[in-house]
Amino acid sequence: MMSTKLLIPLYENDVAPRFDLATEVLIVTNIGKVDPVNKRIVVLPKASAEQLCHLIITEGIQTVVCSGIEDDYYQYLTWKRIEVIDSVIGSSESALERYLEGTLKPGEILH
Amino acid sequence: MKKGATHNTVNAGDSIRAISMEKTAISPHIDNLFNVPVGFFELLDEVAIGVVILDLDRKILVMNQTLKSLTGFSQKDFFGVACAHILRSNVCLHDCPALNINEKSGPKCIEGNLINKDRQLIPIRITSAPLNNYSGKMVGFLETVEDIRLLRKLDETTSRAYNFNNIIGRSPEMEKIFQILPSLAQSDSSVLITGETGTGKDMVAETIHEASNRAKGPFVKINCGALPETLLESELFGHRKGAFTGAVENKPGRIQLAHNGTLYLTEVGDLPLSLQVKLLTFLDDKEIFPLGSIKGVNADVRIIAATHHNLEKMVNDNRFRKDLLFRLNVIRLHLPPLRNRQGDTQLLLDHFLHSLSIQLGKKMLGLSREALKILLNYHYPGNVRELRNIIEYTVNICGDRQIKPKHLPSFLMEAGQVDVAEVTQESPTLLSFKSEDSDNTRQASLKNWPDIEKRMITDALIKTGGRKNKAAVSLGWARSTLWRKMKRYGILR
Description:
The complex is a heterodimer. Chain A has one domain: 2-Layer Sandwich (Nucleotidyltransferase, domain 5). Chain A has 3 helices and 6 strands, in the order ββββαβαβα. The longest helix of chain A is centred in the middle third of the chain and has 10 residues. Chain B is 42% helix and 17% strand.
């Protein structure tokens, strides 16, 4: 089932190559409720996988779309029942578009 | 220089940009070096360190097999994609060496790390150099990527006495193993490692690889008991596009990925019979047939297998093929249980106490005499792994600078009360009989450290009404440690 709240770590306009080095994230809310969906970019004080995990938990994010992520954080997030679609390469817009279509899978290259 | 319909000639970078624009199946070759043209990709694949060629936009044109194995990406994935998205290195994002390179600058070398597709963080060294055409104009970059895990490990271990790479011991049993490991590593024969759980079979396999001529090649590990038969077959031998539903692209098997390196088959006793035959064929012919392929692929791979099962007994029970056993059992290495390693318990205790204190940021003075006596007298059915876990637990919960009996896991105290008064020297065999003969039902039901730890976690969770924060505090662990251990033991809501 598609979640209503999604987060994508950003590197310029792309999905950040590294989860732990992202300094800004795209948060998409009200997926499936309003069209177009609500989007906002949050700038992080520093790149930190721990702080990003904390943000994901406190924001109630249900799905994370990212590229490289260390196994510890992947396992932690999935343990927290957060869907993680990793190794996604491409622009955040195309990743979001594919997610909304329901066709985004781990390892997708969207260039 | 020739240009055929399906070949592009590489000549000092002249046509690299052109190749990147084509985005078609390319097969460049090198002319005028040998009597016949040599495949450029094939040449790169023979290089034992990762090599990648980038265009001026730092998009990937070519990546060799070593780098594919390191990053986990295949040819289909990386072509034309920005290097930072495939290498996924911290260097690419903050200090890309290619950015500071011009036609006249020499190679730039920088250390960092990458996260591969298996989600592993790997320390690397990247060296970046310009690629110029005949007129001296820069057309792209050549980068080499070295996996420096081994170097990092060596840095950590050079100060240790009594060890071989990362295996520690000074007992006669271990000295025998240390003596044969170097010569064993230099040979290319198959090795079968046996031994109880926790004796260090994985570490020995990795050590053999690292001390061998194949050290620069990949070390590919596969757990034969972890995957269902069909998945394991695809994982080991690979598959071709369309071989089965969901096979949307060609995928190399682990054996192929281990080309020029070592394939480590752990829990080989759990390998299904049908795959035993296929593995046997590979051991004979050094050729694998991916699922759905009629064309064989050659793979130069050294096999190291390990199991805690008695394979001879499995052969008698018709659960393991005798001919496979004979092929794997070229060199047999049996790792002794800790209880048979005279004097090693103390050495390992000191080692783990030292390393875990640093790792966990605690300033420990050491063990009290009573605590040491209890630890030396325990029989460690889980061997070195159990000993390490006990020390990890103890260092975690110890609030003082010296570890006392009260800091040790309670099951050790119960075992210790019987024996501490009598046993002054390490006498594990004697103790093991006493412990096993004890009427203590708790001891009987909780045979090893993982069982005890699992029970401690559930007890703490019950006491705290399922609140993990409080449970972690009561156990003296960080919340993440509790989470990790809960995951390991399958205690998840």
